[in-house]
């Protein structure tokens, strides 16, 4: 016969109080750690790994600048740094690389006799959708969708006629869902003129809306003749 486990109310109260004491101890330790006066140095503690012992001292304390620079180029910090860069750019931030470059008419000279001036060398920010489409339409060998765009794709143009009149609206209503999505996505860009290259970018960037695992350009190729024939798109050279 199995025994019946039971606990008195006093025991339950004692356990509750014990848990509460532990929580208070943790809270006190956290407060004590926060109340410590911090220095301007960085403490580095290292432990041996399966690959071998620690080379050099296990504990070192160094300047913040030195450690920060070392961490910035350290391999294990790369994933965090990458995510910070992406978050900064996505939030509307930018990175600007400025440096000294020679300029003849600068008054202040460096010891070698060359005039220097601070100039922006490079700038990094998120591109607007229009900038991306303009780039893929004109830049030679532009690679936006995972492959280099062909000159033919940049030359083959289309003019969008979206819901221009009752006849086109009626024709649109009879289109299959994916064909409608293609036209909707193109219209959402605010452009009327497209190349085959820019159409590929728009559809690839919004592939989820097409609800297919197929290459988006296969979808476009499948419906292109009908879209042109009914007047939704006009082919231009």
Question: Nutshell version of this structure?
Answer:
The protein is 47% helix and 16% strand. The strands form three sheets. The chain has a three-stranded antiparallel beta sheet.
Kindly describe this structure:
The chain has 237 residues and is an alpha+beta fold. Among the domains are: 95-124, no CATH class; 129-236, no CATH class. The chain is 47% helix and 16% strand. It contains ten helices and seven strands. It has helices at 9-35, 64-72, 78-90, 129-138, 151-155, 166-173, 177-188, 196-205, 207-210, 216-229; strands at 41-45, 59-63, 95-102, 116-124, 157-160, 193-195, 233-236. Strands 6-5-7 form a three-stranded antiparallel sheet. Strands 1-2 form a two-stranded antiparallel ribbon. It has a two-stranded antiparallel sheet with strand order 3-4. Helix 4 runs antiparallel to helix 8. The radius of gyration is 32 Å and the shape is elongated. The relative contact order is 0.08.
Describe the protein's topology:
Elements: H1 9-35, E1 41-45, E2 59-63, H2 64-72, H3 78-90, E3 95-102, E4 116-124, H4 129-138, H5 151-155, E5 157-160, H6 166-173, H7 177-188, E6 193-195, H8 196-205, H9 207-210, H10 216-229, E7 233-236
Helix pairs in contact: 4-8
Distance between the termini: 91 Å
Largest sheet: 3 strands, antiparallel
Radius of gyration: 32 Å
- Tell me the helix content: 40-55%
- Mean pLDDT across residues: 86
Order of helices and strands: HEEHHEEHHEHHEHHHE
> Order of strands side by side in the largest beta sheet?
6-5-7
Structural class: alpha+beta
How many β-strand runs? Answer: 7
**Proportion of strand residues:** 15-25%
Shape: elongated
Uncertain runs with pLDDT below 50, 5 residues or more? 1-5
Number of continuous helical runs: 10
